Amino acid sequence: MLSANDWQQIIAFIDERDPGFRGRIRGATPERIQELQAIHAAKLPRAYVDFLELMGEDHGGFELSWAHYSTVQELLLHKVMPPGGPTSYPQSRFIRIAGLKEEHEDDASGWGDYYLDLQRGERDDPVMIDHEFFDPYVDAPEVGSVVVERFTDRVQLRAYADYEQLNNAHQYALNLHFSTPKIAAGWQQLLRLFRWMGWQACLPGSEGTWFGQHTDPVSLEAEIYNDTCVCILAGSNDRRRVLALIEEIKDEFPTQNNGGKWFIGGDKV
Known about the structure:
Layout: H1 4-17, H2 21-24, H3 30-38, H4 46-55, H5 72-77, E1 94-99, E2 112-122, E3 125-132, E4 145-150, H6 151-165, E5 170-177, H7 183-196, E6 200-201, E7 209-213, E8 218-225, E9 229-236, H8 239-252, E10 261-264
Antiparallel strand pairs: 1-2, 2-3, 3-4, 5-9, 5-10, 6-7, 7-8, 8-9
InterPro entries: Knr4/Smi1-like_sf (IPR037883)
Protein name: Knr4/Smi1-like domain-containing protein
Organism: Enhygromyxa salina
């Protein structure tokens, strides 16, 4: 879980790239947080409360998701349906924190929400589920849903994407595959390589996420996925810089890399 200094590092990261951000954010008041707590059967996770206290519900222009509820009233209008509905999840397990403001009236499968799943990960920093109701009769979160990073990882991924990666014309995705017993050693080897290449971490990250900055105009993030894979995303407006960076990583992990592919702006190497 992030410390107070970690949260300030995230705010400083955004403020450096979006001057004035620190002055625009307005933390939620204790009364507002109590209103949010009152509509949930389970205690709000500490990491989510920290986020609300610092950035508030509308996040001062930094959105946790592409669409979100901006007020408690909007959240109440989209409260969890009675048993039998497509969102009839145990309210003691799932905390809805964001979602679309408007539903498709004629198609219940056309909208989605974000939930904190209190039975996955740390209780104070749980896993965040991005749920899209492709099937209105699905009532199990493991079906038709995408499990994403824990809450604080998601906050950092959103910040890095919005303020470091967004304007890159070229982005390349590379996966490194390890057996489960070797993933930790492979991760540390990768971080040592990044430092040797002149990279510095620019966000707190976690034991399974890393976000880098460099004197060259390039972006680089890495994330452990499913305990057997490290996902890397490198980006720049200079295609050659991206290719050079990717090739250097491939040289260090010749048998573990999947060859990779362009995420934005090019073809396979």
